[in-house]
Design goal:
The protein is an alpha+beta fold. It has four helices and six strands. The protein starts with a helix and ends with a helix.
Length: 184
């Protein structure tokens, strides 16, 4: 593996994208269709994303409405939502499935904020590991005679600056999520 600053940066970008996707699954006081993105429904023997078997809408801030395209899916969708560990309680009136979001308790908000912090910390560790891998590769190239020491030092400094930039981005993404979680 050749050291490449671009490859390290690409991996760091993926860490941020992954964190944002993880944060979509963290429930806040507001209803969001993204919360249901990971839910899979048993549809003719296949685990199919909910968005591919129903229309998901948010008519008001604390309500998600799911309208299955196939009436036989009502119970499967309800089962999948209950199994999802999101703590949501779907109700079915035969036409649509409604999920009401009660306001979060103060303790639940704090717990969710802690969870978000832990997710962000994992992403920061991943970015630092990418930096470490890049530096190790640079040193291997130096040992193999493929790079000058001054160039390696300059590349290490650039990789550190890149790491700092992505760590800062992770902190900003976390700040946004915490604000969303703690908002009443």
């Amino acid at each position: 593996m050749d050291y490449s600053k671009a490859a390290c940066e690409e991996r760091m970008k993926k860490s941020i994208v992954s964190l944002r996707e993880e944060f979509n699954g963290v429930r806040t006081g507001r209803a969001s269709p993204a919360l249901l993105d990971k839910i899979r429904v048993d549809y003719y023997g296949q685990k199919t994303p909910l968005s591919q078997v129903a229309t998901v809408s948010v008519p008001e801030a604390r309500l998600i409405v799911i309208q299955p395209w196939d009436r036989t899916l009502f119970t499967e969708i309800e089962k999948a939502i209950l199994k999802s560990e999101l703590g949501l309680n779907p109700s079915n009136d035969g036409k649509v499935i409604r999920i009401a979001f009660p306001p979060l308790t103060e303790q639940r908000r704090k717990d969710l904020a802690k969870t978000a912090k832990a997710m962000a910390e994992k992403s920061k560790v991943a970015v630092r590991n990418i930096r470490r891998d890049g530096i190790e590769e640079l040193k291997r190239q130096l040992a193999a005679g493929g790079a000058d020491e001054d160039i390696v030092k300059k590349e290490e400094d650039e990789l550190q600056k890149l790491t700092d930039t992505y760590i800062l981005q992770i902190s900003k993404v976390l700040e946004e999520k915490e604000k969303e979680i703690l908002e009443i």
